[in-house]
Amino acid sequence: xxxxxxxxxxxxxxxxxxxxxxxxxxxxxxxxxxxxxxxxxxxxxxxxxxxxxxxxxxxxxxxxxxxxxxxxxxxxxxxxxxxxxxxxxxxxxxxxxxxxxxxxxxxxxxxxxxxxxxxxxxxxxxxxxxxxxxxxxxxxxxxxxxxxxxxxxxxxxxxxxxxxxxxxxxxxxxxxxxxxxxxxxxxxxxxxxxxxxxxxxxxxxxxxxxxxxxxxxxxxxxxxxxxxxxxxxxxxxxxxxxxxxxxxxxxxxxxxxxxxxxxxxxxxxxxxxxxxxxxxxxxxxxxxxxxxxxxxxxxxxxxxxxxxxxxxxxxxxxxxxxxxxxxxxxxxxxxxxxxxxxxxxxxxxxxxxxxxxxxxxxxxxxxxxxxxxxxxxxxxxxxxxxxxxxxxxxxxxxxxxxxxxxxxxxxxxxxxxxxxxxxxxxxxxxxxxxxxxxxxxxxxxxxxxxxxxxxxxxxxxxxxxxxxxxxxxxxxxxxx
Length: 480
Known about the structure:
Radius of gyration: 22 Å
Shape: globular
Distance between the termini: 42 Å
Strand order of the largest sheet: 1-2-3-5-4-6-7-8-9
Number of helices: 14
């Protein structure tokens, strides 16, 4: 790993059912007629600046996927909870299909995480493969002040010319700023720059992980009912399980082992909680893409082409079946249980819930003993959503072994062969577990195919006489 990439990454990853609302004829996909209090902000394009591209833009080319990216400065006047107002200028990066034909009508606003005092768009990184293949638009929203200024890993520190106009009045204004971005995404108005390039927006979803999940939880609790410009929320790795009043839109709560608690969830019909066994708060999928994708862009290396993108994604999806140095790199990577599959499914299910009114399935809860998360003989979590690698393990997923990440301890070859006497046995058990996850609505069919493709690499852990044949796989019908 290049020294400068490792140094940047060390800093980079120190981070700690209701149908859709009716639309107003204000514009295609305009905001709900019942809520007209959210101001429409002004969007402008930033200057070229020192680097010639946005900070934290796509680390791979988008043209092969039929996508484009555009960065905008967003300006307006925001209102805090107490009624105080302040002018602001922040920024967003919009990733959208080039054509209406590719667009599924849904925009995902990712409230980027700023725990480490720089921006990390966790959920759009976790679910990027699904977002691209299903035609979502997704937007990195700089809602909080800490991500914008003033270290070398913030926009104003990295490129003071491009981002000279940014002025954040404080996080007390972030909820109104976020709502204004949501309105801008779904409003076409003469004289205003359209971030969606004329695409018809039918739904606006919001997602946030960790600290951003806490912010979104509070947005739902205090702001959503009054504004109504967001149609559904993914609260990931933070927030609470109860709300002080009835929810007005669907909320899907996605939790890793680190957030495990015996407390019961809300029984609101617009709320679902998913607890994903063996997952860590921050994982290998995020870490690997950050090392080999995002970090090179900081020093203006070109985006990866489609072939290199596929190679990076392939390596990032290692679930512990092939030992790798970053398995034990706490926070930098470490935890390999594929939360990205669960995040992709959660967003897919949330979008369907908003679009059709069909709620995702109620899922099993974690198992607790004396108030603590229960584990099995492999030190893996019991209960919860069971993705295939935890049902048929080839590693111990120490998901809470360090503050924000976890570790993966792959089993040695003798232990794998003791558990699964041949590769054919292992493949058959993984196939059964994968089919079950798809039928229960926990794993999307393309991700199931990806999972079974990765299973083939386990053949290398067996002597030639026990390697069998890597068989083709067709996922069953998706359930839930």
